[in-house]
Write a structure and sequence with these properties.
heterotrimer; A: 248 residues; alpha/beta; Rossmann fold; 8 strands; 19% strand; B: 75 residues; alpha+beta; Alpha-Beta Plaits; two-stranded antiparallel sheet; 2 helices; 4 strands; 27% strand
Chain lengths: 248, 75, 358
């Protein structure tokens, strides 16, 4: 018998605090495997800002910085400028990146900062208990949108991948999902290519990952995967928006 | 195509009983073990008919807590 | 070493580079913009990094990242910009990281003015961010002292793994004076083995963090911080005093205001008055004990600031009721003249013993 799937060295042995069925855990694994397989794990410094994934600083087996809400791209900039030869990534939620931290992510991309960002879009604020996020869909209920997001009141949800793809410095922009094994495998490919953009010194890279929040969506983990498929993917189309080759 | 034989092992104390593995197994052989509660208080995932496992790793791919190790035997 | 005539803001840059600072993250704001401009010119020459961030918030978080990565790093701004940095400063203090933060104060509140002021004393010494943290706050009164405090400030930051703030006012940043760059006193600076440099597979991951969800852990952490602050109070107080053992009245003032007070004092001495001066250089740790050296025959302490009364609170704590404490302040960028101060000193001395101070 040959082992074909086992735990990566990129994750510590700390058991995660994530809710049962929360796909944060899957994305953590994909990031950790990618770091290990690309041979950069021991030269990696990660940044985990406030959100459900702030505790990622305990889960990744590399040097980590805990950062203030929304400020991870700035913290990562400071680190990368001090250690241009190290691999620097941020792992951010949608409340973090698409709300309070919009300026930081846009300007890190504009500077073509050679860092990589994993952006978890689960259309809700998870850690604080289910409030509406900039990515919450129209009509989707949240504790601060009890009647469902009302476009007239709070506008339409923000599509970060498309927005960042207009920025020259953003050399790799892709949106993936982790709601099926096939999509998870594709997501890993995208994460590795995003990381390679940094390793090759080409510029800023980001992967937006559509992810579930069973607890705050009010679904079972399995139902949440289906809800993502039927509601999020239509509004947030999957695909690559920029790759280094395309860029002139 | 040689008959692919697979085997999965679950680190039961890590499992949160979320059932994602159950939902993606093509052979439908994974279930949450109702007779058991792990230290977290969940029914851990288990496989009764291991001989039907084809080692495709779907379960491990979907597991958020890296509970599952997959082995494959090709004759 | 030959002295060179430099504008305060640029002297800060030169001193920082002299101290081995290789990273500067900043943002334009009057009256300190000459510093980021200087760093934009000079950092590339020494293979250092100058980066203009998208905001003061981003700049302080870049400092947080670079400091956690083990670098000597600084930022600078002016009053409202420093307000934007407060959360970042609290994180840096909570994560126990060394860095230098320069505040060239301007008039406030709100947009205020671009003229000089000392209106951020409370923010600097009581903490504008959340939590029980402290910054070492050093207040120069001239450009040479500014340079000396910048150079020593980096060592203090590294020694105690704590942010250090240099608190000047618009004048200190804008005026030109001759300076030389001297080596600071020798200090035992600990290794930065806690920094994030990549494990190289040879050590456990280093984690830069200020989050402690378990109450016991956060209390333990706060106890450690308080022990550090106690050590700083014991070792890092800086103060200049003049004639306080024999004075009929003592003036308390810092920064530019203290220089104007000195002129007023020499005028008063010609008229036969015996006036002392206490000039705190470290605003935190505040030189409380210095005030115990004032002789019993003294009639009172007059605090003079370019604000509506902030350091005066610390003076009252220091004096602890031994004498009446008086206050005179100008704001909005108005700078007190020597004559004004001389008048106020006389007035304070004539006040009858009931000492209705403020």
């Amino acid at each position: 018998m040959a082992v074909v799937f086992e735990k990566t060295r990129g994750l510590t042995d700390v058991q995660t605090h994530y809710c049962p069925g929360c796909t944060h855990g899957i994305v953590h694994r994909l990031v950790a495997e990618s770091l290990e397989e690309l041979g950069v794990l021991d030269d990696t410094i990660g940044v985990a800002p406030v959100g459900c994934s702030v505790l990622a600083y305990k889960y990744f087996n590399c040097d980590m910085h805990e950062a203030a809400h929304g400020r991870a791209p700035a913290v990562a900039t400071g680190i990368k400028r001090v250690h241009p030869d190290k691999f620097v990534f941020t792992y951010q939620g949608d409340g973090d990146l698409a709300s309070i931290g919009t300026a930081e992510i846009v300007h890190a991309a504009h500077r073509g900062e050679k860092i990589s960002t994993i952006f978890i879009n689960n259309a809700i604020y998870g850690m604080t208990g289910g409030q509406m996020a900039p990515t919450t869909l129209v009509g989707q209920k949240a504790t601060t949108a009890p009647y469902g997001r009302d476009e007239a009141h709070a506008g339409r949800p923000i599509r970060m991948a498309e927005m960042l793809a207009t920025i020259h410095g953003a050399k790799f922009v892709e949106r993936v999902a982790v709601n099926t094994p096939a999509n998870v495998r594709k997501a890993k490919k995208a994460i590795k290519r995003c990381f390679e953009t940094q390793i090759n010194g080409e510029g800023f890279g980001i992967v937006e990952v559509l992810s579930t929040c069973p607890t705050n969506w009010g679904y079972t983990p399995e139902e949440a995967l289906k809800w993502l498929e039927e509601n999020m993917i239509p509004y947030y189309p999957l695909g690559n928006f920029r790759t280094p080759e395309e860029v002139e | 195509m040689p008959k692919v034989k697979g085997r999965v092992t679950f680190q039961e104390n890590l499992c949160k009983g979320c059932g994602l593995c159950v939902s993606v197994c093509p052979m439908k052989i994974i279930s949450l073990n109702k007779e058991k509660i792990n230290e977290k208080g969940y029914h851990p995932a288990t496989v009764k008919e291991m001989n039907k496992c084809i080692g495709c790793s779907n379960c491990a791919t979907m597991c958020p807590d890296v509970v599952i190790t997959v082995e494959r035997l090709t004759e | 070493m030959a002295k060179v005539l430099m504008k305060g803001n640029e002297a800060i840059g030169a001193a920082a580079i002299e101290a081995g600072c290789k990273y500067f993250f900043g943002y334009p704001i009057t009256p300190q913009s000459e510093l980021p401009e200087y760093m934009a010119r000079e950092m590339p020459k020494i293979n250092g990094v100058f980066l203009q961030a998208e905001s003061e918030i981003a700049a302080i978080n870049m400092v947080y990242g670079a400091a956690g990565a083990g670098a000597r790093v600084m930022t600078s701004s002016s009053s409202p910009g420093i307000s934007l940095k407060q959360e970042g400063i609290s994180y840096i203090a909570g994560a126990e990281l060394p860095c230098l933060i320069v505040n060239i104060m301007r008039g406030g509140p709100g947009l205020g003015s671009i003229q000089p002021s000392q209106t951020d004393y409370f923010q600097a010494t009581r903490g504008g961010g959340n939590g029980d943290y402290r910054l070492v706050v050093l207040a120069p009164a001239n450009v040479q002292e500014l340079v000396d405090l910048i150079i020593e400030g980096f060592d203090i930051a590294d020694q105690y793994r704590n942010p250090v703030m240099i608190l000047g006012d618009g004048m200190i940043g804008q005026m030109m004076e001759p300076v030389e760059f001297k080596k600071p006193k020798k200090r035992e600076l600990p290794e930065k083995d806690w920094a994030t440099t990549g494990t190289k597979g040879k050590r456990k991951p280093n984690i830069i963090n200020s989050l402690y969800l378990a109450a016991e852990e956060l209390e333990e952490h706060n106890k450690r911080l308080q022990e550090k602050y106690k050590a700083i109070k014991e070792n890092e107080v800086k103060v200049e005093s003049y004639n306080i053992e024999d004075a009929d009245i003592v003036v308390a003032a810092y920064g530019t205001t203290s220089r104007i007070a000195k002129t007023a004092i020499s005028q008063l001495e010609k008229e036969g008055y015996k006036v002392g001066l206490i000039r705190p250089i470290s605003l935190w740790p505040f030189p409380y004990e210095e005030f115990n050296k004032i002789s019993d025959k003294c009639k009172g302490v007059l605090t003079i600031e370019m604000n509506t009364g902030q350091m005066v609170d610390d003076v009252k704590i220091a004096v602890n009721g031994r004498f009446p404490v008086y206050f005179y302040g100008r704001t909005g960028g108005m700078v007190p003249t020597p004559n004004e101060i001389a008048e106020k000193v006389k007035e304070s001395m004539e006040v009858k013993s009931n000492g209705c101070s403020i």
